[in-house]
Write a structure and sequence with these properties.
Blueprint: H1 7-21, H2 26-29, H3 31-42, H4 60-69, H5 71-88, E1 93-99, E2 104-108, H6 114-120, H7 130-133, H8 137-144, E3 148-151, E4 164-171, E5 177-185, H9 192-217, E6 222-225, H10 229-233, E7 242-245, E8 250-254, H11 256-261, E9 273-274, H12 275-279, H13 287-302, H14 307-314, H15 318-328
Antiparallel strand pairs: 1-2, 1-5, 3-4, 4-5, 6-7, 7-8, 8-9
């Protein structure tokens, strides 16, 4: 297990980072090189710096205030941290939860791996934003708002090239970024293949935290899964598409994944939208026709397809029901009896 890199390796890494970041096309061709450029040019960090500036840890009182400001994230995130830790602890991995600024709020690690993580400063109260630590799992995940892997020498700082970081962003009930979930390895021989397997766990846990936050924020409403086929077909996306529907069939909230899938603003305040209008797609059907279709189908389902009883429930004649079923294209869904 390595806690740092040898001086010659450090200098070589710093030279590669600087040359690549300042090259004519490196940042345009590689997301890692683009992050190196931000770290070097925008944030003014030194890849060979023993201790980057702006990386001081918070005091206990400052950390307490941070945790209080992320109370819901901490509340729903603990179960997922515990679950992930059980999955990866034997592989010398630690599990970390940060807020939207990259400050580590909570962590899980084996006692034998503690020195490794603390030597990197990967512990509660430490900022791992890209502006503080350069390219790294937590900071770059937050900067780019996407799940990613920063493997060993993809890190900006030479003192971090012995670790691998696997991260996913976490979005709140209003679609805003609220934190990042990270698994970092204290093994210098962590493989890229192992990172890919861990990445699936991290993304799944992050989405579960989002779902729990959303359900907590919309307690008492129906929470419905939206068909996010287009989002799932896009490389690198695994957005969670949930909407909250009130007793009047108005959509009053949506996760970031649902907002993107439905063509809505990705975050911020949400104006109520009739569920029929939002979910009818490109059928050209009006909200009234959609509501009528839904009412007929519900009545038929309650009566197990018996049209006579369904018509009675709807307060119309059976012949009228048949005409409306034919007009709305639902005549074949139930046997006419």
């Amino acid at each position: 297990m390595a806690y740092g890199s040898r001086p010659a390796e450090s200098r070589a890494h710093a030279d590669i980072v600087t040359a690549t970041a300042l090259s004519a096309n490196g940042p345009a061709r590689s997301s890692v090189a683009a992050s190196w450029w931000r770290s070097l040019v925008q944030h003014g960090l030194d890849p060979a710096g023993a201790r980057p500036r702006r990386a001081e840890a918070l005091t206990d009182s400052e950390l307490k205030r941070r945790i209080e400001g992320s109370d819901l994230l901490m509340h729903v995130g603990r179960a997922q941290l515990d679950h992930l830790y059980k999955c990866v602890s034997l592989s010398a991995c630690g599990v970390f939860l940060s807020d939207a600024d990259g400050v580590v709020l909570d962590a899980r690690w084996r006692s034998g791996d503690r020195l490794s993580f603390e030597s990197w400063g990967l512990r509660p109260g430490q900022s791992w934003s890209e502006s503080a630590m350069g390219t790294n799992g937590i900071g770059t995940c937050l900067a780019e708002e996407r799940a990613l892997i920063i493997h060993r020498d993809e890190h900006f700082l030479d003192r971090n090239i012995s670790m691998s970081c696997v991260d996913a962003p976490i979005y709140g009930a209003d679609g805003r970024l609220i934190g990042a979930l990270d698994i970092s390895s204290a093994r210098s021989d962590q493989t890229a293949a192992a990172n890919q397997m861990i990445a699936a766990l991290v993304r799944q846990a992050a989405r579960q935290i989002e779902a729990d936050c959303f359900r907590h924020g919309h307690s008492g409403q129906r929470v419905v899964l939206v068909d996010d086929h287009e989002e799932r077909e896009s490389p690198g996306t695994d957005a969670l598409a949930l909407i909250a529907v009130d007793e009047n069939d108005l959509v009053i909230g949506a996760t970031r994944g649902a907002r993107l899938a439905l063509g809505l603003a990705p975050c911020g305040a949400f104006s109520p939208i009739p569920a029929d209008d939002l979910l009818s797609g490109d059928t050209g059907e009006t909200g009234l026709a959609s509501a009528e279709r839904a009412a007929i189908l519900k009545a038929l389902a309650r009566q197990h397809g018996n049209a006579s009883r369904a018509a009675q429930d709807l307060g119309i004649g059976r012949a009228t029901l048949y005409r409306r079923m034919k007009r709305l294209g639902v005549a074949g869904k139930f046997a006419q009896n």
